[in-house]
Every structure is written in C-alpha cells, then in structure tokens.
Amino acid sequence: MSAHLTMLRRVLVPGLAAAVLALPLTGAARAAEPPGQGDSFRAYACRQDIHPQDPDYPGVHVASIEKAPNGDLLYAFYAGTEEGADDVATYMSTLPVGAKTWTRPRVIFDEPGQPDGNAVLWADGRDTYLFFSTIRGDGWTEADLRLIRSGDSGKTWSDPEQIREEWGWLFGTKPFRMSNGEVLVPIYSETRWASGWYIPTDDYSTWVPHPSGDDADWPTSPNGAIQPATVELEPGHLLAYLRTRDQAVYKTESFDYGRTWTPAEPTGLPNNNARVALLKLGDGNLVLAYNPVTEGRDTLRLALSTDQGKTWTSSVDVESDPGAEFSYPYLLQTDDGMIHLAYTHRRESMRHVVFNEEFVRAGADLPSDARPTPVEYRNGSLNHPSTCHYQNKSR
C-alpha cells in the first residue's frame, strides 16, 4: 500500500476531526541521520525486541527509557507471573555505548512478596533515578511512591527512599526539566482518576504536588483522566495529554510552570483507556505515540505535529495486528537527533523502535511480527537485518 493510501485510511473517532494528510518534506525539517552511517537516506526506523519471551517472567509491561550519564541507553519495565502478582519486580536492560543490541534484562529492584511497577527512569547530572510504586495492599489504589538512585549509570542502585507513604498516587509518564530549571514529574491519582505533577527539590528529598496537595483539585475528565504526558511548548506554557475513560485523549494546559492547570477538555484524538506518550523534539515539533482506537490495543501509531498539537499532519503505524496488544508507549529523543519508542509487545516482551522525524513523515508502516526479529526501514525499503544499523553513541 502506498504512503498516500496509508495516510488516507487514517481516521479518528467517528464525529471527531479527521487526520490531516502528510506534508512534503523540507530541508529544515529533516532530522539527523543515524550516526556513524555514510548512507544518504533520511527516513529511518528499526524495531527490535529488548528480550525474547522468557518463562522466568512471562508477563511484562510498562516501559521507560532514558539516556544514562555515561551514554548508555537504559530500558526499565516490570515483569513477573502477571500484573499485580507478588513475584513482579522491576527489570532493566541496557544498550551500551557502541552497541546495536540490548543486554539481557536483570532485576534492579524487588520488594519481597509485594509487586513493584510503573517505574520511570530519569537522569540528572551524574545521577540516575528510578521513580516507582510498590503495591502494599490490593491493587494500584493501595500503592505508595518511592525512588532509588544510581551514581554509576544504572550498574548499582541505592536502597529505596520514600516519596509518599499514603496510598493511591502513581508515576507513569516522562519527567523533564522546564526552562526555569525545575524538574516536572507527572503523577496521577488511581483513587480519584485525576492528573497531577510533582516538582521536587534539587536533591529530590522534598516533593511538592501541583496544582494542590488534594487530588480532588486535579484536572480530570467526566469519567476520569490519568497518566499526563506533558511537554513545555513555550517558557512556562505546558501541555499535557491525558488517558481517559471517555474514548478520547483529553488535554490540560498550564501557563505558570505547572502550578495551576486548565480544566481538561477533549483533543479530538481517540483513546482506549491506555497511556499515551508525548514528546517535544529539538526542532520544536511534537511526536505523539498512542493507540488510535477506542477499544483494544492492537494498533500503535506515531504522529507528528508542527503547530504545538493543534493538528497532527503525519502519522505511521509501528504495530498493527487485530486482537494483539501494543501498549503503554514511552518516548525519548537523544542528542544524535534520533527518537526512541519503548512499549509493551503482547505482554510477552518489551520492544524498542529507533526512528527519525522523516520516518513519521514518510508514512511507511512497519508490519507486525510476533517473532523477535528486527524490522528496519532504510533507503526507502523494509528489511529484516540480523541487527539494526543504528548504533548507540555517547552523549
């Protein structure tokens, strides 16, 4: 199917605005080519499994990806018998500097007899942090908030530190440093199904919630909105996309560095009650990763906006297989200009797609394949190399 036909078939929720067709490429819009390659191609993507399905951890979910201070890429997720089981622990895999394939996942934290999850990686200066929850009772409404630290780019980790002992708030979406120097860490209330944000002190010892310490004051939708995927559009002007039970992605904005937020309203994009990922690129454009459906999680799409999220002019599917699950995307852009997508693959393995902005504009879908075989879009064609051409470079 041609790229034009692929784009023509993309629709949103019935009755909502339709997606706009892809715009032509311009020289200024071209992102960096994969480093270390002499080819003249521009559109590039490569998808690979972090690990094959492993009987030691048959159920996996909730990706987070971050660049460590030493340049390694770190990929965290939780795994065990199934979500919420007592044997669920937090695992991490590494794509070392100079490598093309990920290391075998290893446990970096496990609370004996209690499931951990919803971990978010964050690197700040020479330190790396893992923000996460441990279920203390029956389900996510009875989970607390904690962190562990690493001073050696994820090789070893500290004992856990408590952020919030009270149950019901969770992490789940990407932190970032705002233009005023403060770090914004999105959170949400599993008990009220509302969205909030922490601003920690520089040493991450004190955490102040916003818009207030009472989650009854947090933005939500008629049926509940959580997991705010947040970016800074302009200094102090923040935009967050929210997962909802309302069959649509909702949005809320802040104009004072996250202290106050507007009432949440629908965006026109569909939502299937699953997490989305939103990322501001170095050139100011936005990339969105989401399931473009209102039921199921069997398609995972990337979309590009050049006007701060008002319209999404280009899109491409990185997975699509009726009845399968591809969910909980997480996005990161590295210093080489490449964009990294991490997500759950069928609850059996965790996957990674490295791509550039031109790949989203090209609209060439990646075919789904349950096998742990790399799929690469390069020089305008799809291939199945033994390893991706992309090689992780240092900062």
From TrEMBL:
Residues 1-31 form the signal peptide. CDD domains: Sialidase_non-viral (cd15482). Residues 71-341 form the Sialidase domain. Keywords: Signal. InterPro entries: Sialidase, Sialidase_sf. It comes from the Bacteria. This is Exo-alpha-sialidase. It comes from Nonomuraea cypriaca.
